[in-house]
Amino acid sequence: MDSDTERNIIELCGHAGKILLESGAETARVESTVEYIGRAAGIDISCHAEMTAIFVDSNHNPTTHLVKVRTCDFNLQKVDEINTLSRQFTANQITFEQLKTGIERIDHAVIDFNWPEKILGAGLVSVAPMLLFQATWQDLTLAFFVGIIGYLTAQWAGRVVVTPYFSMGIGGLVIGLLAASLQGIGIATSAQSIIVSALMPLVPGVAITNSLREIIGRHTISGMVRAVDATMTACAIGAGVIIGSLLGHF
To answer: Where is the Threonine/serine exporter-like N-terminal domain (predicted)?
Structure first.
């Protein structure tokens, strides 16, 4: 195999790993997927992934390919599509060129739900915990709308302000303010139940789950980074709720 072909394979492996890591895949999945693609292409590849970079090299070539990574929002659909392509390639169902084209397509694709689906999803997620609390139908309905308003506020703040965690704090503040105010004027029965339920769309559940999987898999550094990020998000939400609740009581 000539050096140009080997370089192209290594660069494609790094590109696939970058998409996986930026979309929220755990480092163990990134490393294994990259190595599977390389071996299926005829190169014995080693991959080491961290939260900010991916290192890919061939075991018989001293050159190391470095890919800088900036983690962003989770997009598990991209993770699933990259995994599907890698499995098809290792099973000889697609060619290397088809794999390259597919990875480029996934990288440039904007995979997202439309706003009506997001709003409905936020409302339904906000309602679910109220069933456990055996809340009144009035509180359940209020939690539906408070959760939607808090989610939309967090999304708006995230587009306006680039400061990390600020948007989640603003979302928590609005939810705490609305819940306390509704209870204060006698419309809601339990502000605490509404707050806990309406916060569900903002809770970093995937980040917490991935951090635990990383730590259990002995990827300690990546696991701790994800855990700290999830903790900072939770602290921002909690601080916003406290401030909003105090303002609502006043």
So the answer is: 12-245
Q: Which amino acid type is present at position 51?
A: M
For residue 228, what are the contacts with CB-CB under 8 A and spacing of at least 6? none
Those residues whose C-beta lies under 8 Å from the C-beta of residue 29, and which sit 6 or more positions away, are 20, 79, 83
Residues 82-121: pLDDT tens digits? 999 999 999 889 988 999 999 999 888 877 778 888 899 9
Q: Are 144 and 201 in contact (CB under 8 A)?
A: no
CB 30 within 8 A of CB 20: yes
Q: Tell me if the pTM is above 0.85.
A: no
Q: For residues 117 and 112, give the distance between their C-alpha atoms in angstroms, rounded to a whole number.
A: 10
Please answer whether residues 190 and 140 qualify as being in contact, where contact means their C-beta atoms are separated by less than 8 angstroms.
Answer: no
Q: What is the dihedral of CA 10, 15, 21, 24, to 10 degrees?
A: -140
Q: 16-20, 64-68, 173-177 — which is least confidently predicted?
A: 64-68
